[in-house]
Design a protein that fits this description.
The chain has 110 residues and is of the alpha+beta class. Helices cover 18% and strands 26% of the residues. The strands form 2 sheets. It has a 4-stranded antiparallel β-sheet with strand order 1-7-3-4, with no helix packed on it. It has a 3-stranded antiparallel β-sheet with strand order 2-6-5, with no helix packed on it. Strand 3 and strand 4 form a beta hairpin. The protein is elongated.
Amino acid sequence: MAVTKNSYTVGGSGQAGPYSYAVIADTDIKVSVNGTIKTVTTHYTLDTGNTRITFVSGQEPSTGDSVIIYRDTDEDPITNTFVAGSTIRSNELNDNFKQLLYIAQESDNQ
């Protein structure tokens, strides 16, 4: 089964992070703490270069809280579209297949 989420239990006196994630686009990442969805920039920041999130000061989860970082890949629009006579690049095809794979994995895990 594919890994579509990372789950953490906060230890110590709470942790700001960083917590790892893997998504196609940053808009596909979702973060919840004890089942409550958090908002990027309000509750956490994204470090896209290292694929990690860090909670904003004052928004850190507490000891024992459950932090879940998961993919919610957007189905529409497809990553790349092709028109008659256009060049088809392997990286664009791979991106489309990865998007479809992620959507299938997420559906299977629900």
